[in-house]
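hey team, just a heads up i'm posting the complex here instead of the shared drive bc the drive is being weird again. everything in one block, sequence lines first with there labels, then the predicted structure for the whole assembly after. its two chains so it's a bit long, scroll down
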Amino acid sequence: MSKKRKLGRGVALVGAGMSPFGMFGDQDSKDLFVEAFQSMIDSVDRGLDPKDIDAIYLGNFTNDYFVQQSHWGAILADTLGLVPKPATRVEGACASSALAFREAVFAIASGYYDIVLVGGFEDMSKQTTEEVAEGLALAASPYERQAGFTFPGVFGAIATAYFDRYGATREHLMDVTIKSHDNAPLNPKAQYQRSIKDMMASKIERAKKQGKPVPDWNDEKQFLSDPRANPVVAWPMHLFDCSPISDGAACMLLVGEEIARSFTDEPLYVVGLGQASGRALHAADDLTYFEATRFAAKEAYEMSGLTPADIQFAEVHDCFSIAEILHIEDLGFFKAGEGYKAVEDGLTRLDGPRPINTSGGLKCKGHPVGATGVAQLVEVWEQLRYKAGKRQVRSGNLRIGAAHNLGGTGGTCTFTILERR
Amino acid sequence: MSPPVTDHSFVEFLHEEKLMGSKCAACDALFLPPRAFCVHCHRTEMNWVQMKGIGKLTAFTSIAIGPPFMIKQGFDRSNPYCMAVIELAEGPRVVARIEDVDALHPENIKIGMALKVRFLPRDDLEKGVTPLTFTPINGE
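-- predicted structure starts here --
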């Protein structure tokens, strides 16, 4: 089973961009993707003539259901003026565009294409919350849906199993949320632009102005413990443990390694790739880790010859706060059962030794599901090229960053390692 | 004749108040919900086996915002419901709702608690909704 895999030809990343993430009632998938495409072109140091793109790989999860329109590969090829270039849409729930990224890498590594556009997009906010929940539940196992589970419910159950095994509590979930809300205001494209402290201050201000009882929160955890401010969704998952409903798009340009320097002096190289499948909730023997994350990580580490200690920072799939804690363990950054302590000790904060989700994560940057996998890699691109502005990781000479993307309730996981040489 | 090993048969058995799994004739692996294809030895000769219907709680959540078919049954923020992963005495795990627990105070629900199966009457169910639930065993 365990075999060291390698690409037949090196693949480099030479451009990356994204639309702002948020709820945009006046923009659809085409509008958002055009914005991401323009942002990607602007990032290519020596410029890109779109006519040179050989092929397009796109990730999208729910457009068939939410906007009653499929066949998005061809629609976006036309929108971008790239007809007759081949366009392929890939579906892997919330990991859709990480899968598109892998397919694009393989297409170049095979020698068939030289210059490939890869992207992801999702258009979710025109639905009601109930409709979005129904749409996302398409990625759960049929047994979970029929029994009455929801997505937050599955992650809530995972949290209780983890708490029971290791002694973590809801307060540790709050540490994850507070960190994400601290990072996001440093990211101009993030959906949420306020820290928890800022939100508390503005709610107190508003209460005073309206002559209403002024909340007496002393710190962020008191705010997050207040059921009026942070109501339960699926215990122990509360509103602030859940990623939001978002619209957005992200894309990047991948090329054969030997032509990378005709686009930029600072290409990034795809050195580790991993993808794995996981089981339904009832079929897993142990709910305190994600089998597919562990397998994907192993594959990527073996391919790259790197170890978890080499990964200087990472974006990990925090669709729910508990998921971030499990994943930083599954990826080998911290031992099993110690992820929550690492978060509590600030080790994953922007100024900590292992920054996690510098973008604000899915929780605060936003989670337009099909865009997320590529958007995570856009953050790694900006960090490794020192273009991350106020949220730039300052520790050491940045050389290696990674992104972990999860689909469904762990049915699909990917891990991708990028290197600046 | 034994019914085919399908989800449909599994649900029909539940309506007869039988919790049935499939057992691989070649390697004895036990599956519930049933599998027609053994994921261990990749053979297809399966026999139906009835479970005792007792188990223990391994993970749970209290859902305040459920899917439409649960909302229709009257579940909401003021009346949440408990969903769980239950490990059966025979080994396999199932997902099901737990009745007769205080879902408004989930911090009092304990992992490891003993549970027994309770089948919901077919007439009360919407199409496609599972009749399988569990309740605490008395004394828990």
